[in-house]
Amino acid sequence: MAANDLPLDLAALRAAHARLCGVVSRTPQWHNDALSAELGLSLQFKLENLQRTGSFKIRGATHKIGRLLAQGPPPAGVVAVSAGNHAQGVARAAALAGLRAVVVMPVSAPLTKILACRKLGADVRLAGDNLEQAAELAHRIAAEDGLAFLHPYDDWDVVAGQASCGLEMLEDAPDMTLAVVPLGGGGLLAGVALALKLQNPAIRVVGVQTDAVAPWRRFLVDGSIEEVSPGAHTIADGIRVKRPGEHTRQVIARHVDEIVTVDDNAIAEAIVTLLERTRTIGEGAGVVGLAALLQGKIWLGADERAVCVISGGNVDMTLVGRSIDYGLASSGRLMSVAVTVADAPGMLMRLLKTVAELGINIRHVEHRRGELHVPVGMTEIILQMETRDFEHQRELIVHLVGEGLTVRNLLGL
In a 10 Å sphere around its CB, with 0-12 CB exposed, 13-18 middle and 19+ buried, how is residue 371 labelled? Predict the structure, then answer.
């Protein structure tokens, strides 16, 4: 056992990092001036969304397969269960090693991740509504076909692989005081926490999970794992994990300082913020750390120097547009109002003239007549508009009400 009573010490983590050189990318770590000023700290992003296969998962998968090959005769192949990112990491690592790869994904897995796995040569099977149900088929395939099962997080070799991310973080920011890391099953958080705390115990490590699926919520308080509702839904599908790992619990209990949660609305805002500030895309699970910082969920000390891990960028493209619109609405840059006017010639032109004079751009116009809430002889005009901020929106509403019009803010913001 290592000095910290865990089977991984700093030498083991550095050896794992060395094995990944040339196969896994050393992702960039960018300082963001604008967000640093806005949040009152020095903020860097560790951009694992720019990693090969689009997430950190390739680190653990590659290291695990390399260890399997080094320890004995190669297996007939590997099988994994994943919502997408671990599957892609396993698929690519297996292809490089010349191994067959089978990945089992929940039926709700994003199509983009399913197609990506197939393009990497994996045999993709869909089963169950969640990772736990998909895992049943994966274990059965492993037993029947003689394949090695690659756990997405509860494996010391996988944790050691993910720790390479933490080693790079500290090398690129040796004065860091805070690490903010997404938390699902715990593989990434455990690896990063080990890499940092074994070198500088003073660094504060915070894990962030989605509020809808938060089994870790009270773990650091009383050691309990919270039961998750079977129907729990979140846009952060990559960390929708209901059963945290046993190995990862050991590390997190000793080396993680705090665990916080964020809701899907905050996650959507973080997707937009990351896109605007770094010109890179982050998936829901990948941006929860940024969401926590933006929402003030993490206490910040004086002269805080933080590194926030953006763990993946394999976002479901159908979600991007919805997230952007929500992010714009929540920041006062998109609004929808219903204005009731007389159903007479020239009324629409009058309304549009008022909007134009206030410097507001209209995205969409819709008329409603003959509905119970619209009086006879009147029409309801629905406008979706781009505005500067909430004050700009209030200016419009005050102006319209001043003209004697009935106005409803459809977004309720």
Answer: exposed
Q: What residue ranges do the domains of the chain occupy?
A: 10-55+156-327, 59-150, 334-409
86 closest CA partner among 69, 105, 107, 70:
105
Q: Quote the pTM value.
A: 0.88
With cut-offs at 50, 70 and 90, classify the pLDDT of residue 3: very low
Amino acid present at 304: E
Per CATH, the number for 59-150 is 3.40.50.1100
Please indicate whether residue 82 or residue 45 has the higher confidence score (pLDDT): 45
Q: Are 330 and 269 in contact (CB under 8 A)?
A: yes
- Starting at the earlier edge strand, list the strands of the sheet with 204-210: 29-31, 42-47, 305-310, 178-182, 204-210, 258-262
Q: Which CATH number fits domain 334-409: 3.30.1330.60, 3.40.50.300, 3.30.70.260, 3.40.50.2300?
A: 3.30.70.260
What order of strands is seen across the sheet that includes strand 100-105?
123-126, 100-105, 77-81, 148-150
Question: Domain 10-55+156-327 belongs to what topology?
Answer: Rossmann fold (3.40.50)
Strands 42-47 and 29-31: antiparallel
Could you give the residue ranges of the DSSP H alpha helices within 257-384? Answer: 264-278, 288-294, 317-330, 347-357
